[in-house]
């Protein structure tokens, strides 16, 4: 079986790979996303490009052995066509949550798989973008203040985490829950299968 690298330090993405039984090594890409914001494109193109750049950053690190699959992903929240990046302050988190309170927004996750052959060269690269619509409850001021007083908003696009306390903010979703968490597992699984990986080994 090929080796697998997750190009991320994200605990939630690590947990999702563990959930479906993929053995992997995590290597952080160290991509400076803030520098990339200056060249921000449409949400679709942005998240697709960042996911790919993360994978290639790890590939270029010199830490990738032959016969390896690099898995990289990026997730963004958008409202009215605008990307809501990770808030840095309570003020930014408060404004962000207030803007999507009681409204529907869209979460995009870009997924890249880079297949490295036995000769250490790229055999194939697959790129995907998946979108899920999320409807948030109308939040009270107290709810927003309580939530932004936790640690959750500040390392997450849109200022909330659906897999944590942020689940209490959500009314409904239309699409893949795992896309919102940050790694569309079904797309990942079927891409590996299409590229000749014996995915049934993950079930053992």
Automatic annotation (TrEMBL):
It catalyses: dTTP + H2O = dTMP + diphosphate + H(+); UTP + H2O = UMP + diphosphate + H(+). InterPro entries: ITPase-like_fam, Maf-like. Its cofactor is a divalent metal cation. Pfam families: Maf (PF02545). The active site is at residue 74. It is found in: Cytoplasm. It comes from the Bacteria. One of its GO terms (molecular function) is nucleoside triphosphate diphosphatase activity. The record marks 12, 75, 163 as: Important for substrate specificity. Its EC number is 3.6.1.9. Keywords: Cytoplasm, Hydrolase, Nucleotide metabolism. One of its GO terms (cellular component) is cytoplasm. One of its GO terms (biological process) is nucleotide metabolic process. Nucleoside triphosphate pyrophosphatase that hydrolyzes dTTP and UTP. May have a dual role in cell division arrest and in preventing the incorporation of modified nucleotides into cellular nucleic acids. Belongs to the Maf family. YhdE subfamily. This is dTTP/UTP pyrophosphatase. It comes from Candidatus Fimicola merdigallinarum. The lineage of its organism: Bacteria, Bacillati, Bacillota, Clostridia, Lachnospirales.
């Amino acid at each position: 079986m090929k080796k697998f690298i997750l190009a991320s330090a994200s605990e939630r993405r690590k947990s999702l790979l563990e959930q479906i039984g993929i053995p992997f090594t995590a290597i952080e890409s160290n991509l400076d996303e803030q520098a990339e914001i200056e060249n921000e494109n449409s949400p679709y193109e942005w998240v697709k490009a960042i996911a790919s750049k993360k994978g290639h950053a790890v590939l270029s690190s010199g830490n990738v052995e032959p016969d390896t699959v690099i898995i990289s992903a990026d997730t963004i929240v958008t409202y009215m066509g605008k990307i809501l990046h990770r808030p840095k302050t309570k003020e930014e988190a408060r404004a962000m949550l207030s803007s999507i309170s009681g409204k529907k927004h869209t979460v995009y996750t870009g997924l890249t798989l880079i297949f490295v052959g036995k000769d250490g060269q790229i055999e194939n690269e697959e790129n995907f973008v998946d979108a899920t619509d999320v409807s948030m409850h109308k939040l009270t001021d107290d709810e927003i203040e309580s939530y932004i007083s936790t640690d959750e908003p500040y390392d997450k696009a849109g200022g909330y985490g659906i897999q944590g306390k942020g689940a209490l903010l959500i009314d409904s979703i239309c699409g893949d829950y795992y896309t919102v968490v940050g790694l569309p597992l079904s797309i990942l699984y079927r891409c590996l299968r299409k590229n000749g990986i014996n995915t049934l080994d993950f079930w053992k």
